[in-house]
């Protein structure tokens, strides 16, 4: 006499079998820490500066004189311990941007002034930068960044300690 | 007085019998965990960057923040110089050169660093590349040292100088707004 299938057997055939997730778990446990270690959380940027070169002297004649007239005006930004100073070649007036409070530079006004200088000197793409030795690196880089974002891609770092302005 | 009583089932000839209910091990449901890990995995794969230059943020140094990014010049090869407030580290291997005061005051320190830079510049030039100096300095460092290093690197034939910074898209942060 044949017996019918047991209850247990029929139940095990009807129920869906659970996949074995342990190998996947093992893989994930290895991959996720590995990815976390190599993941870039901070994106670094590079800011290029150029060094001052010796000015090409000499030259003369009418053609050279005509070329000189079309040369862009030299713009110099001095980073001083208590203010920024902007000077444009041929203009005696120096734009002075004092600090908002002790240790807090007015980057917003600097940005506005540099944008205005760019409008007036569209053919100029270089700013000469003269930092005071006591000025912090953060101030230097922010100033370079402001110049570059206002379409002055070339920053000439003046390493000379000679001041550019006239003694009063 | 409370007495802890333990009931022992010794129906089967004095032997302990296992309880049927406790015999079955419960399966741990890890489906939800797998779901979370899959999302994490996809997110990380999307955000991963194999760019080595972006991973070289020096430890223990607070870099300034900038909006603009410049790329290395074509066929340029960068030499790293990490300037901490208390020490100078040279190259990708972070060889300690000395302190900033040593650099300014001790000629032997300056000469050894100059020799290292010159050697590196020569080896880069010999491979038809252009030597670039990547200065990574703490944001609180006075510019006096930066100027000295720029002058110094110019002596060692490094014409292209780069500063390292943390990139941000928020311009207001730069303007202090």
Continuous helix count of chain A: 5
> What distance lies between the first and last C-alpha atoms of chain B, to the nearest angstrom?
73 Å
Read across the widest sheet of chain B, the strand sequence of neighbours is 1-6-5-2-3-4
Shape of chain B: elongated
Descriptive keywords:
heterodimer, A: 168 residues, alpha/beta, five-stranded mixed sheet, 5 helices, 6 strands, 37% helix, rod-shaped, B: 177 residues, six-stranded mixed sheet, 6 helices, 19% strand, disordered N terminus
Structural summary, described in words:
The complex is a heterodimer of chains A (168) and B (177). With 168 residues, chain A is of the alpha/beta class. Chain A is 37% helix and 18% strand. In chain A, helix 4 runs parallel beside helix 5 (137-149). By secondary structure, chain B is α/β, with parallel strands linked by helices. Chain B has a six-stranded mixed β-sheet. At the A-B interface, helix 2, strand 1, helix 4 and helix 5 of A face helix 2, strand 1, helix 5, strand 6 and helix 6 of B.
Fold blueprint:
The complex is a heterodimer of chains A (168) and B (177).
Chain A: H1 7-14, H2 22-38, E1 44-49, H3 61-70, E2 75-79, E3 83-88, E4 95-98, H4 107-120, E5 126-131, H5 137-149, E6 154-157
Parallel strand pairs in A: 2-5, 5-6
Antiparallel strand pairs in A: 2-3, 3-4
Chain B: H1 20-23, H2 31-47, E1 65-66, E2 76-83, E3 88-90, E4 95-98, H3 100-105, H4 107-126, E5 130-137, H5 143-155, E6 160-167, H6 171-175
Parallel strand pairs in B: 1-6, 2-5, 5-6
Antiparallel strand pairs in B: 2-3, 3-4
Short description:
The complex is a heterodimer of chains A (168) and B (177). Chain A has helices at 7-14, 22-38, 61-70, 107-120, 137-149, and strands at residues 44-49, 75-79, 83-88, 95-98, 126-131, 154-157.
